[in-house]
């Protein structure tokens, strides 16, 4: 934030707010009013944020694919969250289930299904509620995978220990023993760590499936802030490289990175929620030039639904149907090439 060269008078503040609201149904008090009143923004910054608002199109629910319409109809009456949030959160989860092997073929190269999604709205507006509807179904698919992986890794650790003891006892027969070294199990999991170091994130992607979703049920701006801390220098650039999904992506250099193989067509999605103000404050001019902000699929909405003291329950039949549907997408993506 920078101080304005000349303080904004009350008339200018009112005009700017009206300009913003012309392109969005967001209430005046939830976007920039405090900053404008305190003259904390330059005119260039104000114009930049107004342009962001202008470029957010309205969602056309009539053109949604059949599964998205059915998902919206199943979930919309159980929450005060805007319908846009429900749909776009579902898209993030479905994209993750499809994985890196489902592609759209273009002359310039294949486009994979991963997306970066931000639900932007006021506090208490149902942003996280919309995410939770679909993340619970995702967790239901992943839970048995994690249990199985835990058993495999325990077995691997035991085999590794026995193997290392055999090496020590049979130093004259090392060549034949090396061929018997146990292999660390790899399984495709769906969720990835959110607040983590660059080194740890590289290791997770390299040692397991190079894809998944960074699912933030807390404030999305926490992740964006973490990208720009001194301890995570290079993490933001690494995420941007992941978005392009190169065929042979070498990992950033650090102490043990030489031991990690390159990533083959990584597919990493991000889905989270934030207030507009908190989200936009995490971006600077360089993020516009580098293409960081352009990578985001943003839903910016307010709901006319009333917040329910006791939310309506979603139909069990609908939930079972989507559990089967999501599992089918996940299973199909294992064999599609």
Short note summarizing the structure:
The chain has 337 residues and is of the alpha/beta class. It contains 13 helices and six strands. The radius of gyration is 24 Å and the shape is globular.
Structural class: alpha/beta
The amount of helix comes to 40-55%
Poorly predicted residue ranges: 1-8, 20-38
Number of helices: 13
Distance between the amino and carboxyl termini: 47 Å
How many DSSP-defined strands? 6
> Kindly state the mean pLDDT as a whole number?
79
Backbone CA Rg: 24 Å
Major β-sheet, in short? Answer: 4 strands, parallel
Into which percentage range does the β-strand content fall?
5-15%
* H and E string: HHHHHEEEHHHEHHEHHEH
Ordered list of secondary-structure elements with their pairings:
Blueprint: H1 10-22, H2 33-37, H3 43-54, H4 66-75, H5 83-98, E1 103-106, E2 109-112, E3 116-120, H6 127-169, H7 174-178, H8 198-207, E4 211-219, H9 220-227, H10 235-243, E5 267-274, H11 276-280, H12 285-290, E6 296-300, H13 316-333
Parallel strand pairs: 3-5, 3-6, 4-5
Antiparallel strand pairs: 1-2
């Amino acid at each position: 934030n920078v101080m304005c060269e000349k303080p904004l008078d009350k008339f200018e503040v009112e005009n700017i707010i009206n300009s913003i609201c012309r392109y969005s149904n967001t209430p005046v008090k939830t976007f920039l009013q405090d900053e404008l009143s305190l003259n904390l923004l330059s005119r260039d910054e104000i114009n930049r944020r107004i342009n962001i608002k202008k470029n957010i199109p309205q969602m056309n629910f009539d053109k949604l694919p059949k599964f998205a319409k059915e998902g919206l109809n199943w979930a919309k009456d159980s929450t005060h969250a805007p319908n846009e949030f429900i749909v776009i959160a579902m898209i993030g989860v479905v994209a993750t289930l499809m994985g890196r092997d489902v592609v759209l073929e273009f002359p310039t190269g294949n486009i994979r299904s991963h997306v970066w999604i931000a639900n932007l709205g006021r506090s208490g507006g149902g942003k996280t509620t919309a995410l939770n509807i679909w993340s619970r179904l995702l967790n239901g698919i992943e839970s048995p995978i994690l249990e199985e992986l835990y058993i495999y890794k325990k077995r691997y650790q035991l085999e590794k220990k026995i193997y290392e003891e055999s090496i020590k006892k049979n130093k004259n027969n090392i060549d034949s023993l090396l061929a018997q070294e146990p292999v660390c199990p790899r399984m495709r999991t769906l969720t990835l760590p959110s607040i983590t170091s660059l080194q740890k994130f590289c290791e997770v992607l390299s040692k397991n499936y190079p894809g998944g979703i960074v699912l933030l049920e807390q404030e999305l701006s926490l992740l964006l802030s973490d990208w720009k801390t001194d301890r995570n220098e290079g993490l933001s650039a690494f995420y941007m490289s992941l978005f392009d999904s190169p065929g042979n992506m070498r990992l950033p250099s650090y102490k043990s990175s030489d031991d990690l193989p390159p990533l083959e067509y990584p597919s990493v999605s991000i889905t989270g929620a934030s207030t507009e103000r908190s989200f936009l404050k995490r971006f600077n001019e360089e993020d516009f030039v580098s293409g960081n902000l352009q990578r985001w699929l943003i839903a910016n909405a307010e709901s006319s639904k009333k917040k329910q003291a006791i939310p309506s329950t979603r139909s069990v039949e609908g939930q079972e149907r989507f559990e089967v549907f999501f599992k089918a997408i996940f299973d199909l993506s294992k064999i599609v090439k």
